[in-house]
Amino acid sequence: MKKNFIALLSLLISAGAASAQEALWLFAPVESPVVNSDSTVTLSIFAPNASKVAAHGFGMNPLELTRSDNGTWSVTTPKMKPDLYTYSFDVDGVRTIDPANAYTARDISMIFSEVIVPGGNADLYAPRDVPHGTVSKVWYPSPSLDATRRMTVYTPAGYEQNPDRRYPVFYLLHGMGGDEEAWNELGRASIILDNLIASGKAEPMIVVMPNGNANLAAAPGNTSAGMYTPKGEHSIAKFGKFENSVKDIIGYVDSNYRTIPDKAHRAIAGLSMGGGHSWRTSMLMPDTFDYVGLFSAAVRWSGNGVETSNEEISEPLQRQFKNAPKLYWIAIGKDDFLYKLNEDYRSLLDSMNIPYEYHESEGGHTWTNWRDYLVMFTPRLFK
Q: What is the pLDDT of residues 270-285, one digit of tens each?
C-alpha cells in the first residue's frame, strides 16, 4: 500500500509539472511579505540570476533589495502606519508582482501585490469572523445609454434569510480609470461594510457599485469588447452621460431588491471622478438622495476641460438645498491636486449659506484616504 501511494504521488507530481494544471506541488521558495511585530514589512524574492532588485510602493521611494548567498533578495521597510499597501518588484528593469504573495489587486491596467499592516482603520480591511454579506456582479438594462451594463451589488448579512425586511441603499462610485470592481477590490468596500455592520457602527444596507464609464459596459474582459487594455481616458468619453443614467440604476435596484425607495433611505458618494458624478447627480436629482459624500471630488468639472461657473450651478444648488440633504459631506487631503477646486467650491457654498460638513486629511489623491473616508462616512448613513 505504501509503495502504491508513493508511486501515485510521484505520478501526480510529474503530471502537475508537465501540464501545469494546478500548482498543487509547487511552493514559493521564500516567504513574502512578512509583517513584523514592529510594523515593518520584510519583502523577499528568489531571483538568483538578477543583478539588481528594487521594491516600488508603500508610498515611498523605491527600496533596494540585498542579495543573499542563495539568490534570495530581501529588504525591510521602515515602520509603517496601519494601512493596506500595494507594491511591486523591479527585477533588472522588469516590473513584476511578488510571486510569493497570493494577494493582488488591479488598479486600471496594473496588477499590484497587497499587504495589510494592522491597527486603526486597517483592521476593518481584513476579513473577520463575522457574518458576511453577499457580493454579486449584476447585469442591468440602461435605456439612457442604450446598453446592458454591469454593476457590483453588496447585500448585507441576513438579506436572504429575512425576506420581509427592506433596506436603505448606498450608491458608491469609482474614479477615473476605475470600474465596477474598483471599490470592492482596492477599496475593500464589502469587507469594511461587513465589519462595520457586525460591530453595530453602521446600519445594514445595500451597496451598489456601478460602472461610471458611460461608454463601457463592464470591467475589462467581461464584454464583447474583449481583453482590451484599460486606460484612464476611457472614463472621459461620454462624460456627463453617466449622471443621466443613474435613474436606470435606481429603477433596477428598486425593482429587484428589497429597498426602501425614498430620499431618506438613499445615499450617494464617490471618489475623484465618482465624486464629481455624485456632486452633479445629487444636484440634478434633488429629491433622490439624503446623504451625499464627495471624496476628493472632481466638483465643478464639466468633462470638457472647462470649469463650470458659479452662475451655472447656483440655481441647481438652491433647488437641491431647498429641501437640504441630511448630510452633505466633503473630504479631501491637504496635498490632493483637486484641493484648490474643492476649496473654491466650499467658498461658493459658504457664500450661499449652504450647510455641509468638511473633513481635511493628510496626504493626497490616494486609496489610503478614500478607504478612510468610507469608514468615516458609512456610519453616518440612515441614522
A: 999 999 999 999 999 9
